[in-house]
Amino acid sequence: MERIFDITTWEALDAAVAALRQCADKKVYYLEGTLGAGKTTFVQHWLRQAGYSGVVQSPTYALMNEYYIGQQTVIHADLYRLAAPDELLYLDVRDWSERATHIFIEWAQNGGDYLPAADVFCQFALRDGRRYLSVAAA
Average pLDDT in the 38-57 region? Predict the structure, then answer.
């Protein structure tokens, strides 16, 4: 599966999220893109569509946030500020796959071999004043 979405408008982003949510067997998403490209906004929209009504914050400073939606646990990690991959051990990274139904990881390249393997790669890009999301299954 490879698909490119123009996610410049909120409506287009919601449509892209809805399409990805149809892939229920996909659990681990690596989110790649420059600062401000829309990675955290994508997760916010995904959580809203999943029924989460609380505050969704960027995990840039906390490194990881967990959200609970009924029986689901969603982990959203931002590894931009990670100094070394082994710091993930303090976040119980080895348990993420067992306790979470969905995992979204920004800046996964900073996590080394500690991270669960990706099911989906999401590449966010800004071009000519528009936002794009390229999605590929692992």
Answer: 94
